[in-house]
Sequence to fold (87 residues):
Amino acid sequence: MSGARLRIAPGYRLQWEPAQSCHVLLYPEGMVQLNPSAAAVLELCDGSLDADGIVAALEAKYPGADLAADVRQFLEVADERGWLRSA
Fold:
């Protein structure tokens, strides 16, 4: 995943779900409820940024927060679950 621009995998869709009062990741077999941090990361997975770019964007949005390790760990889990693809 290093250096690859990341996007949400085909068949998955990130959206706000009013009934759940949270962002969800929809896929043909169901949905995953996301916490705000996970949603913030996945919103940046639009094919324009790699993992370093996603970390940098979030650190710019939340100055002073040490996010790199947590963001990279989440991206690894999301990749393992098939939620992400290289753009």
Remarks:
- Residues 47 and 87 are 5 Å apart (CA to CA).
- The mean pLDDT is 96.
- Helices lie at 36-43, 51-61, 68-80.
